Amino acid sequence: MRSIWNGNISFGLVSIPIKMYPATEDHSISFRQIHTRDSGRIRYRKVCELEDEPVETSEIGRAYEDADGALIPITDEDMAALALPTTHTLEIEAFVSASEIDPLQMGDAYYLGTGGAAAAKPYTLLREALKRSQKVAIAKYAHRGRERLGVLRVVDDTLALHRLVWPDEVRESTGVAPKEKVTVKPAELDLADTLMETLGEVDLGDLRDEYHEALEELVAAKMSGAVPVAEPGEQPAGAQVVDLVAALQESVRSARRARGEEEAGEEGAEREKATVTHLRGRKKAAAKQAPEKPEKPEKAEKKAAAKKAPAKKAAAAKKSPAGRKKTAGARKSGTTSAEEAAQEPTEKTAEKAAGKKTGAKTGAKHAAGKKTAAKKTTAKKQPGKRDTRTAS
To answer: 315, 327 in Cβ contact below 8 A?
Structure first.
């Protein structure tokens, strides 16, 4: 790996010779511009406007264009005369917590290696100090013609430098957020949480650039003379969301199917869970508010007569001693009111028959008593005859 910058890390009075290496690379495939008619290369040439001729790179310098369009040349000597202490030095300014760094400021990343055997000891010292403090170092350095801001941190056993944009280079987000006032319901937040839990965590090492892989396959097929056949991909869904809750529910199901967590039998259960269920309280309230249908006069009279008849029977049963006994017996035996109503005619018939028998017996007794009284009366009326007989 070829270094792109050489300098020193200034750590107080400690100086650490380092070399800077790119920590990332762009794996995109680059294309050349061609003339579609004859496949000729299209090249850009640096041409002087005054001479209308191409210019060599060694003859090209820099200049500043002012508001009037005038060009002010700036030479290499002018740049070297600038009082820039960080020209070849990475000056550490402070040590802060990594959470204090705004991710919007993060830029390109570089690995920092040692610039010789003598740099091994101070390099290791700075690395271990950063590890133990769990902090990062804020530093300034000069690179590609300008002074830059960076953050030093430890990656495995290597010091890494992330370029930071200056705080005043971060634009404000004013006017970007939606201006419409909307309300997010707790149920929608719960579904969003469920979707987040279903998607879960991911190992960034498992992610890959599928577009780049497909592009490589296309180039390889064209080189071998084959005609690649494009497979129809999934059409993107519309951006307008009609039912946010339904979209979240379907997203949860899709995420579970993608992870193999939902079987065929479970899919129906999930759909049942996703259906809207009306609250019982609302049904009762709706039933109370519904107007009652008017009944016909004939039905109303029949119902009123049916209600009065059982009430009269119950009152008569309560007043009679037999009814009280029946009620007490029914409570003990556990008979129902319907059974009592069925037993009433039979019991009344038995009582009438018993009353007739008792009346017949009482009549016979009265008749016998009358005969006895008549005999006694006759005996009392004939005492003279008995006396005459005795005298003679």
So the answer is: no
